[in-house]
Amino acid sequence: MMGSEPPSSPQVVEEGGDEEDEELSGGEDAELRTSAGRGSVLTRRGITLRVLLKDGLVEPGDGVLSIHYLGKNFVGDLLTDGKIRWVETGQIFNSPSAWATHCKRLVNPAKKSGCGWASVRYRGEKLVQYKTSWLRKYQPTADMSLASEGEEDEMGDDEEEEGKTAVPAEEKNRKSKTELHDISLVQRRGDRERIPVRYCTLGTRDVARDPHTLVELSAFSAINRFQPFNVAVSSNVLLLMDFHCHLTTSEVVGYLGGRWDTTTQLLTVLRAFPCRTRLADREAAPVVEEEICQNLFMRGLSLVGWYHSHPRGPALPSLQDIDSQMDHQLRLQGSSNGFQPCLGIICGPYYHGNQGVASTITPFWVVPPPEQRPNDYGIPVAVEVTYVQDNFLTTDVLNEMMLLVEFYRAAPDLVNFSQMWSPDTAILDKIKASLSGHAPKDQAYSQILEHVYNQLRSIQ
After folding, report:
1. Do 184 and 291 form a contact (C-beta atoms < 8 A)?
2. Would you call 390 helix, strand, or coil by DSSP?
3. Number of H helices, E strands in the chain
4. How many CB atoms lie within 10 A of CB 419?
5. Per residue in 394-424, pLDDT tens?
6. What does the alpha-carbon distance between residue 106 and residue 115 come to, in Å, rounded to a whole number?
7. Rounded CA separation 107/333 (Å)
8. Could you read off the pLDDT of 347-367 as tens digits, one per residue?
9. How far does CA 45 lie from the centroid of its chain?
């Protein structure tokens, strides 16, 4: 769901035109080949993807091109005319430079160039290697430095960014099309005490590190940044999300629908869409998510984020959550021509470290690591949010609550609502108190919700 269908008329993107490795137009390419021929030394600029295609060093194909940058993967199709189609959005790029610049700016807006031939891989090998192969085949007496003219620094920078192992393009292609399913299919660890760590103690990514390690949030000011957007969240969103997270001892997931105003840079979250499926249920997840996608469309809303619960632990992101959030930010950003934020929310209903009986609700975002430290984790930062009190509890929300009750009614991990949360408070009373913090202005909501609470009592 985070992705988007390729547009019917693909947009041709021409970025990175100031770079030396920008592709020539068809006419320039033909003129260069006619005047120079293979007997003359082609300049680095003259060896284009069209040249490599014509001479059989590369072949057109789906998912054969890839970029790995700051831990993020991008997959592209090589077209017969030497252009590149980004699999995620269907956008067409005239050159490796244009595609690389566009993708890298999604991850790191400060990136000024894409280092295309040093960044883009064809079937796992950097394109610059195919330039070298062309020169060795057709101009064996040429200075091999022509193949990397002006690219030595680029390759040095990107070598660290891309790491030492290449992921097969087919695998990247599959990953790019899973969209939001991987949120709801991740099998998360059972409840146990997890002590949060400070981001500054993490250092470089380490495969031996527990992906469920919790990380304390930083403030935008602490990393010398301003929050790049404003957020307003409806009280009905919080009420439904909080209710969903209270029903089970297992982690739950849902999506957030709303609107993004590019003029005011305001993200308004208007509706929560709980996933009524088990996290590991691969068969049910696509059906549930398609239903949510249709609900978003019918209400004229856009997908603006996601939420999940940490039932008995702190409402802080794990390393796994940080990577997931970064992926979803990139997908939402890549689905349009401009910047669009993706909000992550974590709800901690049953953590005894919470103050009082209310759940802890944590909105967060992830800032990419510094470009000079591409193998670090993304930086989780707290998002300042304005909470807007709705006038009344909508029928949509009430119906969704009843559907959730029915879904979890026979679940083995259903919470025992008659148990005591504290010496003087039953769990059901704790839920009521937590939800009262998201009450609408119309006080009749309490009588309406009593019907829902009676359903919870009847389960026991």
Report:
1. no
2. coil
3. 14, 17
4. 11
5. 999 999 999 999 999 989 899 999 999 999 9
6. 15
7. 9
8. 999 998 888 999 999 999 999
9. 35
